[in-house]
Amino acid sequence: MGRGKIEIKRIENNTNRQVTFCKRRNGLLKKAYELSVLCDAEIALIVFSTRGRVYEYSNTNIKATIERYKKATAETSSAYTTQELNAQFYQQESKKLRQQIQLMQNTNRHLVGEGVSSLNVRELKQLENRLERGLTRIRSKKHERILAETENLQKREIQLEQENAFLRSKIAENERLQELSMMPAAGQEQDYNAFQQYYARNMLQLNMMEGMQPSNYDSLLSSDKKSPHLD
């Protein structure tokens, strides 16, 4: 029967842990040696124990292998161009933005009462509190707008009353000026009427005198002479 698999986790027993370390360290060094021989690979192996002891293996010079590793990793890191780095950055930012957009869309749907069946009691309570806070802010802003509009209308009313009073005073002033300008014309009309009446009376007397007979006219003159005159 084969040995069963063991769980890969830290061994708590110090003795068992030390025994396992020695066995697996030797097996790892053996595998590294076999890999270097069979595949002609350049290998450098470094192991530190819990007590600080170092174990190493290299089929060449271990320092040269480490320098080669450093150079290879440096070339790999510098192989990324600026455009590639920018592309990676923008991809990450785009992913974050898509997640934020999705979250905001879900939140908006929840605020209008859609998709709430998938929410638990705690999430529903949070949504309810958010809606109550939003309604409070909306009512406060609405009240402020109503007060501001009322104040503006009152100011406008006062302004219109002042303009109306100013227009009434202008109209009254114009009427007084018209009356003053018509007064001389009215006097002339009265004089003209008086003249017409005087002229009519005189014409009537002349017509009457022209229509009398000579005898009547002489008798009228004699009667005028006989009538006593009062001093």
TrEMBL record:
It is found in: Nucleus. Residues 80-170 form a coiled coil. Probable transcription factor. One of its GO terms (cellular component) is nucleus. It comes from Nicotiana tabacum (Common tobacco). Residues 87-177 form the K-box domain. GO terms for biological process: positive regulation of transcription by RNA polymerase II; regulation of transcription by RNA polymerase II. Pfam families: K-box, SRF-TF. Gene3D superfamilies: Transcription factor, MADS-box. Its main location: nucleus. Keywords: Coiled coil, DNA-binding, Nucleus, Transcription, Transcription regulation. One of its GO terms (molecular function) is DNA-binding transcription factor activity, RNA polymerase II-specific. Residues 1-61 form the MADS-box domain. The gene is LOC107796724. This is Agamous-like MADS-box protein AGL11 isoform X1.
